Amino acid sequence: MGEATMTLEAAAFEALRHFRHLDESNAAIHCGGVRFSPITFQLARALVDFDRDNEKDPDVAAVAAHDGSYDWDRGR
After folding, report:
1. Could you give the C-alpha distances from 9 to 12, 16, 35, 46, 76, in angstroms and in order?
2. DSSP conformation letters of 18-73
3. Which end of the chain is least crowded, N or C, by CB within 10 Å?
4. Can you list the pairs that 54-60 forms with residues at least 24 positions away whose Cβ atoms lie under 8 Å?
5. How far apart are CA 36 and CA 15, in angstroms?
6. Where are the domains of the chain?
7. What are the Cα distances from residue 59, in Å, to 38, 49, 66, 75?
8. pTM, rounded to two decimals
9. Could you report the per-residue pLDDT of 4-35, keeping only the tens digit for each?
């Protein structure tokens, strides 16, 4: 079997997508609005810090639109 490789940036995008969809599904289960978790915000911020062009990514933009609109849930 060959070894699968991925850049750290690509891995961070996959993690962001995972946590974004997890947060959105959690909101849907509870019939509430989406409140992204701290890890989701931190991944989006780190991707933008790494490369400003990443802010154009739809996943990053969706999370960034919520940044600062509510206090982070530190209990997660």
Report:
1. 5, 10, 24, 9, 24
2. HHHHHHHHHHHHTTS-----HHHHHHHHHHHHH-GGGGGSHHHHHHHTTTTSS---
3. N
4. 54/9, 57/13, 59/13, 59/16, 59/17, 59/20, 60/16
5. 13
6. 8-27+35-64
7. 15, 15, 12, 23
8. 0.87
9. 789 999 999 999 999 999 999 999 999 999 99
